[in-house]
């Protein structure tokens, strides 16, 4: 895959043997469906990187979302490792490479941030935390993604939360931004409820604020965030395959991230389902880039985990 400049112009490695707090990497595909052309999702990571370049010279400037500069007066401590190789015809290999990269970053004591990619990449990403449990999962999404299988594929983009619920290191799942209708039938809803997933609709967040979701995350826990771009309203995130009105605003999403950072330790973060062919004037890529800035800023402001 041809790569653009790295996110925010960040380095690939830090000098002088310094260890990063956050490591970014991209992955276009996890497990694709044979009858679906998912190739355009592989464009997303570099579209987000390109959208971040205007802010690259401004890393020391005041960021009003964060209440200070991104790195809060400390040296740059985030790196971008570029994209790992994925192939639409190699589902098992894609999953193995994503999980291995996640484990590698965690072994370095850093927080992995994954730029997807289709919504199957969270399965191997979250699987990579198997030795780091227990962890909670906060999913921001219009859909619950609880299908057992589609076209015989167990690990596709309709199934990530179903597969995550089967992982023994996952302590619980909160699903925020749900609305309208998706692929979930009554059986999927019942399966998620039996597991104990906490459903938080977009309407609840509009009415009650982000605390409607955050109150389900135990204080002092460790949490992986998986952010599907269709969790946001298409007025700010049109570049998705399944536009659904009534979604979360940009401010609600960054407030969720900031609030989670005060309540829990963000152990990992992925952003998926940006579909560049549907974007309008680069708005979705810009919104995604800004959400990632907020995630990085929140992680950097957390105490260093022992």
Walkthrough of the structure:
- This protein is of the alpha/beta class and 306 residues long.
- The chain has nine helices and eight strands.
- The termini are far apart.
- The mean pLDDT is 96.
Summarize the structure.
This protein is an alpha/beta fold. The protein has nine helices and eight strands. It has one domain: Arginase, Chain A, CATH 3.40.800.10.
Low-pLDDT sequence parts: none
Distance between the termini: 36 Å
Tertiary shape: globular
How much is the average pLDDT? 96
Salient structural properties:
single chain, 306 residues, alpha/beta, Arginase, Chain A, eight-stranded parallel β-sheet, 30% helix
What is the topology?
Elements: E1 22-27, H1 44-52, E2 78-83, H2 91-107, E3 111-116, H3 122-127, E4 135-140, H4 160-165, E5 170-178, H5 186-195, E6 198-201, H6 202-208, H7 211-214, E7 222-228, H8 250-263, E8 265-272, H9 283-300
Parallel strand pairs: 1-2, 1-3, 3-8, 4-5, 4-7, 5-6, 7-8
Helix pairs in contact: 1-9, 8-9
